[in-house]
Every structure is written in structure tokens, then in C-alpha cells.
From TrEMBL:
Alphabetic keyword roster: Carbohydrate metabolism, Glycosidase, Hydrolase
Protein name, as recorded: non-reducing end alpha-L-arabinofuranosidase
InterPro entries noted in UniProt: Alpha-L-AF_C, ASD1_cat, GH, Glyco_hydro_b
Key word Phosphoprotein present: no
MF terms in GO: alpha-L-arabinofuranosidase activity
Lineage top rank: taxon: Bacteria
EC number: 3.2.1.55
Catalysed reaction equations from the record: Hydrolysis of terminal non-reducing alpha-L-arabinofuranoside residues in alpha-L-arabinosides
Amino acid sequence: MNKLILNADVEKGKINKNIYGHFAEHLGRCIYKGIWVGEDSEIPNTGGIRTDVLEALKKLDIPVLRWPGGCFASEYHWKDGVGPREERPEIINTLWGGVVENNHFGTHEFFDLCDRLGAEPYICGNVGSGTVQEMQQWVEYMTFDGQSPMADWRRENGRDEPWKLKYFGVGNENWGWGGFMRPEYYADLYRRYQTFVRDYGDNEIYRIACGANVDDYNWTDVLMREASDFMDGLSFHYYVHPGGWDNKKAATGFAEDEWFETMQKTLRMDELLTKHSTIMDKYDPDKEVGLIVDEWGGWYKVKEGTNPGFLYQQNTLRDALLAGVTLNIFNDHSDRVQMANIAQTVNVLQSMVLTDKEKMILTPTYHVFEMYKVHQDATLLSLDLQSEEYKYKDEEIPAVSASASKDDEGTINITICNMNPNQEVKINSRLAGVEGNLADITGRVLTAPELDTHNTFDNPELVEPTEFTNANLTEDGFEVVLPEKSVVLLSLS
Ligand code: AHR
């Protein structure tokens, strides 16, 4: 029997809207062709940015966007990406596909994108192959108001006012392609680099240190011990790979074994966050340092026939469940998790939209982000869920994941995922602590006939949210029947 008890008067703090953040790297067709086509392109664009992609992303209320990488950040030299575009140097993107990077999308273009999206920029600096001076000058270029070589250069390049920049990452995956460093060494480098990430005028930077990969708890421990006094956030990366890193499986055409494994690995996020947070608590009991999950999502084998370095993959109903369950987990950990950035926005890994020349489609993951935006900056409510198990062969996981929040108007939004692909789930819910009477329950559902149903350029609307009518108010709460393999949003007012 499934039971959900929601205590509407037990508020558990605000869900930082940045948990619904995104990440766009110079990788494959994410920036070039996906976001940026240039002003002279035949593809309709707004100042060089694809208009279709821009309009689609605007509907997600993206709070924060991380750029330029990822691994690319550890080879990025920002000076290559400012000034007249035709004079910018062409380099090779050695990490991702070995293709030419013409640097046409640089600092100015990124801030313009964020501005048009209404998103806060989150810049990841280069600790891997960049100097302290280079990082210091980038921050000066972006944020210094007075006269200085960098601020003057920015003006020469067409931007008079400094930009507001809050989030700055000091390095990316420095335990891996960001330099293969040991945590003790990186902790010292972090302390040094961050010193020169200066706050100019009233621009206050939230400094994010490179954090652990998956279950590298020692990295978290060392960074917190050696450098927590110098950071506002510590990052953390976790990707779901059915089959494992060395034996990635396809994004489509999979059977239930891979569905189950994906759900199991998705749920692991809860355990990882709990353990990293517990270590952080040891050094920071007041939870002043945020845990910043600045890369997460499903990572499969690339689509056949595409450049393996472009990480292009389809996005199915399975990804909708992966996203829905993960976002529920983030909400639950929002006392520590202050930001998360799904990888990546367009055409790379678990994308929001996919493009093919002038065509664009929305993915199931896009729809989950659109449904879940009700949680952004809302108040997390206490929710106790007793879920039946979803059994596969001799293993089992809970079938249901849920999260609830209350918005400023008092509407209670509950997002519920049924991971069981074979069985609908009936939930009786008891609501306590509601002021006045609830008069209305409405819903939306995202589901599809097959495990791997996905939108295509020929059939772009196969997976879309529809109205959900299988929920009713009862005397002490509500009753809902979730279809198998579905993501549901219920709104109670
Ligand atoms: O998102 C793709 C890559 O995954 C990023 O560049 C890197 O940081 C991570 O390993």
C-alpha cells in the first residue's frame, strides 16, 4: 500500500531556484549550431543566438547557466573569445572531437545569452592550464567599473558597464582532465587562485571550488578541511551510466534491465548527497558552504554515426524519470544543495532540446523541467512517503519518488514519479496543517507507451505533458492513481 503524508505546516526551508540550473559547454553541437549560429546564418537568430532555442529555453525560467565547460574550461583562454570575431584565433577543441573552435561565442556572447534568458551567469575558470593572472584579469574584465587595462579593453569591445557576475567556479574536475591533481594539491591551488578572484565595487562573487566525483569522499573531506573557509560552494559531479562508464549502453532501444539499472543508479544520488553533506557538516555545521551539483544526468553511448567526441544522444521517457526523480532528491537536500546544473542544455548528453540544421525538438527532459519549475524558490514541505517496491528479477527499489512545495500564493505543488514501467500505483494521501479548505486539485502527466519513446524531428510531439485527471480530493487529503512509468505534477489550492 502506498501512503503519502504531507504536513503543509512543516516548512523545511526554501528550495533554491538554482537547483533548476543548466550547463552549456563548447562541446559537440551544444554552443555552435545548437545555441550559436551567428548573425549571418539562414537559421533565424537573435543577435547570433538561434531564436527557436532561445524561445524554448526561456519557457524553462532557467535560473543559472554554467559555461564554458566542463573539461573545455581547463583549456579555455578567455582572451581568445573577445574582440572582433573575425580576428579571434581558431583553436582545436582537443578534448571534444578535435574540431576547430573559432571562438565566435565568447564572454560577450555568453552574457548576452544569459541576459536574454534571464539567467544568472556561472563562469567556470581555468585552473588546469590557465594562470592565476589570466583568471584575475578575466574577473577584472567582466566586473571592474573603473579604469584599468581590462575594463578599458571591455569598453573597447563594446561593453561599457561591467556585468554582474555572481557565480565563479575555480576549476573543473581537477581530479581528472582538469590536471589529475591530488586533493591536497588542488586545495592549495584553490586557495591561491580564489584570492585573485576579486570582488570589484559591489559585485560579490560566490566562489565555487572543484568538488568530488561520485563517491570520492576523501576529496570532499580534504577540500572542506583545507579550504572551506575560502569557498562559498563546493561542486560535485555524478552521471548515471547504465552498463558502467566503460560499457555505456544505448539511449534508445533498451529493455527493462537497463531501465531498472538506470532508476537504481538515479536513486543513488540521494545516498551520495547524504554522505557528502555529512562530511561537509563536520567542518560546516551551519551549512554555509553550498553543495553545487554542477554536472549531472544520463550519459549513454553516442548516437550511431555521430562524432564520439560530440556526446550526442537521444532523450526518452526514461530520461524524464531520471530527471524527475533526481530533482525530487535535490529538493529534499535543499538545505545543502544550493545549485545543480544538468548536463547539457542543447545536443549534448541529457539535453533540453535537440537540433538538426533548422529543426528543433523538445525532449522529455525539457518537459520535466518545465513542469517542475513550480518548485523554484518555493518552500519545501515535509512529506512522508511509504512506497511499494518495484521489483525486477531479484532486486527491488521503491516505485515512487515525490516532493512537495508551497508557493507564495499558497498553492501546494507535488511532483510524483512512478518508476515502475509495468504497474500503475495508487496513493492515498493525508494532508495535515492546511489552512482553510482545499477546493481544487489539478494535474499534468508525462508518460508514453514505450520505455524508450522519444520525440524525433519527424514526430516531435510523441512525449508531451497532458492534463491529468486521475486525482481527487478526499476528506483528509487526496487520492491519486499514477500511470506506470510516469511523472505527475499535482497542484492543490
Ligand atoms: O559534460 C561532459 C563532461 O563531463 C564535462 O566536460 C566534464 O566536466 C565531465 O567529465
